[in-house]
Amino acid sequence: MTLLRDDALSAAFDHGSRAYDRLVAVNPGYRRDLRRSARRLGLAGGGRGLRLLDLGCGTGASTAALLAAAPHAEIVAVDASAGMLERAAAKRWPANVTFVHAPVEAMEGTAVRGRFDAALAAYLFRNVSDPDLVLGTVRELLQPGGRLAVHEYALGSGRLHRAVWSVVFGAVVRPAGRLTGDAALYRHLNRSVLEFDRAADFAERLRRAGFHGVRVLPLPGWQTGITHTFVARTPGVARGRS
């Protein structure tokens, strides 16, 4: 199976959106780790006066993580899947949260306007056709000194990390995907994890894209060495640093 891209991937997520929240609930650390990555942006004052961008918001778990870290910020959440976005927008949100249907690669001409102080991208970069193009777009959307947190499956260099992922996928994720009728989406998930940058390589990709202060931070539990938070900033003076 080839990796799903663009419209084919959006359609698969549209279909998978019906059971997505139930599936991620099987992972007890899913929402906890997203909140950890959002906190790693280091936003002061509950985000008061800041504009934040949630890239690839899915059904809203990453949006909720940003909101918990910065309840007073303006948050714009973007996703290419209409089905995922519909389920996100149907949940209860305060007035400072807005949802926009758009691929990250084509946000021009949408409601995503102006510059942002920080962005969170969760489980996004494995799924785009051109990660470098998207990183360039994100860099241009951020203020000078703007911060980026990428929460992503990016395996460490050891064989153990690949082995643990393969066991978890085979024992838990693949059977769940079959039960919901979304086997193709979860086959894509497996291939995208195995074929994506290793953690050190993605950190280098961020540096090549013009981001400074790149750090690779681990996440706890079974995801150690499998999922990481990458934090970085654009050149310039940051606002609202805690």
TrEMBL record:
Q: What is this protein called?
A: CrtT-methyltransferase-like protein
What are the leading ranks of the lineage? Bacteria, Bacillati, Actinomycetota, Actinomycetes, Kitasatosporales
Checking InterPro entries in the record gives: SAM-dependent_MTases_sf
Pfam families this protein is in?
A: Ubie_methyltran
Q: One GO molecular function term? A: methyltransferase activity
User: What CDD domains has UniProt attached to this entry?
Assistant: AdoMet_MTases (cd02440)
Q: Which organism is it from?
A: Actinacidiphila cocklensis
- PANTHER family, per the entry: TRANS-ACONITATE 2-METHYLTRANSFERASE, TRANS-ACONITATE 2-METHYLTRANSFERASE-RELATED
Name the Gene Ontology biological process terms: antibiotic biosynthetic process
